[in-house]
Design brief:
Length: 194
């Protein structure tokens, strides 16, 4: 192996988005943060906390991408390791993102753990894995804001990411099953499922 193949390389957001156009079979996402900070979500998040968020069944741009990809034979999997009790952001993500993404066909799974614990064999690391061989680490700041996507070329890390994917998928619950366990205690009254 050459040293160049092992290097991590920071990439632009445009280059990262290109992976979603280029992958052929599968895209997997491991999420481990309890709060993400994205400028495009600030208003929606504030509305959610205030109980005024519009809960329309619109699957949005990501949902359209997922449903279109699935129609072409692609697979989209995601596992979020969540600590309970849930953070406000994770509640927001469940109600305003995951429900719609599941409707679009994304296989979202939740791995709940008590606060202060972590599932053995899984890192506290966010990443995307495309076609089981293209690994992109999502480098976040302490506030949950994205610093940069980082392409990882080290084959050992890619193999490890595949093993983590398999373990996370095995330990987690389908989102619909997790979502059904809760009532108004999980989500504000305005966002509780019927």
């Amino acid at each position: 192996m050459t040293a160049g193949r092992k290097q991590a390389r920071h990439i632009s957001w445009a280059e990262f988005e290109g992976f979603f156009d280029e992958f052929e079979y599968s895209a997997f996402r491991l999420e481990t943060l309890q709060t993400y900070s994205a400028e495009h979500e600030e208003r929606e998040f504030a509305d959610f906390l205030a109980g005024t968020h519009d809960l329309s069944p619109d699957i949005g741009e990501w949902g359209e991408e997922v449903s279109s990809g699935i129609a072409r034979g692609r697979r989209y999997d995601r596992v979020h390791v969540v600590t309970e009790p849930l953070s406000d952001y994770v509640r927001f993500e469940c109600v305003t993102g995951y429900r719609q993404s599941v409707l679009a066909g994304e296989n979202i799974r939740i791995l709940p753990v008590p606060e202060g614990q972590w599932p053995s064999g899984l890192p506290r690391l966010d990443y995307w894995l495309f076609d089981s061989h293209v690994l992109v680490h999502m480098d976040y700041g302490l506030d949950g804001s994205l610093i940069s996507p980082v392409v990882i070329g080290d084959p050992r890390q890619i193999v490890a990411a595949n093993a983590w994917r398999d373990r996370a998928m095995h330990l987690s619950l389908p989102f619909a099953e997790y979502d059904a366990r809760f009532n108004d205690a999980m989500y504000p009254l305005e966002t509780a499922s019927p």
